[in-house]
Amino acid sequence: METFEGHISMTTPMVTPHLPAVLVQMLLEQGLSAHDLFEGTGVVLEHFSQPQHLFSYQQLSIIIARGLQLTGNPRLGFEFGKRIRHAHMAELGVALSCVPDMETGYQIMRRYQKILGSAFNLRRVDHPNYVALIANKLIPLGSNYHFNQESWLVSLAYNLSRGLERPLHELDYFVEFDYPEPEDSTAFRELFGDKVRFSQKHSQILVARELTRIPLVGSCPTYLPAAMEACEEACQRSLRPISLPERIRSHLRNLLEAPPTADEVASHFNMSTRTLNRRLEDLDLHFRQLLKEVKFDMASQLLRTTDLPIGLVAQRSGFTEASNFVKAFREWAGTTPSRYRAQLRSPETL
Question: Residue 162 burial by CB count (10 A; 0-12/13-18/19+): exposed, middle or buried?
């Protein structure tokens, strides 16, 4: 039986200074003082110029909250996201600067995202015409939730534009947030136009599949293997453990043909079902939601990469009846499994 202590620690230093340094510089430029931002946190300004220094989530959470309060700017995360470049992402950023296309970039980002100690885990979902990157939180974010979601999704959109060397308004994409539209959404509308949506099921960016295959002019594929090797070494040094949702998803994938119940999963992780549910609720998640995500991630992968009959895809994705699978898949993807497979493989969607 595997032991799991709960949430990723809020007090253990595990976040590199690369991205926090960008935020602090932005706040100092706006007239805030280091004393007001760092008082009582144990953080000093010199820490942000020391690449080997690590911050805790608690320290950064306090700094973000004070930044929001002292600037009075609810769109602080939005402005932060616009500043983020690959150069601010340590070894991961070097690798992203070398990739031949955005598809490779997304694969590398998801594989090595723990290098930065991010409070999010990027999950990919393949739709017939779009690739979706969903930002699932790894720690309770409280009042900083909007800041974090906006910073990551704005950054992803901006770097999409930079990578393709085309203005955002010319690209086929959508940015979605899982909370209502702010009273003043001017910043969103000016940047995204009609490509931003609120009150959606997930906070995510959806990028047209055809854009992910376009060769990037500024890529350096020759150096990519060395950059990925550096990422592997950085991951080995990272202190961030695997989160509870990540562990549950991995456990479910291994047993998907006969999915375990919430009680069985809780027992596997040496906790009560009540504790399991409470810890997931702290991250705005539920066990059924995780199981559904894993089922459809598996189904989409099998439909995309194999010629297995629909009945066998259903079985391997945790469904006992093909008819139930087809009905559930249609509700999830808006189309049948057969049409989904055909759309993914048609020239128009490659």
Answer: middle
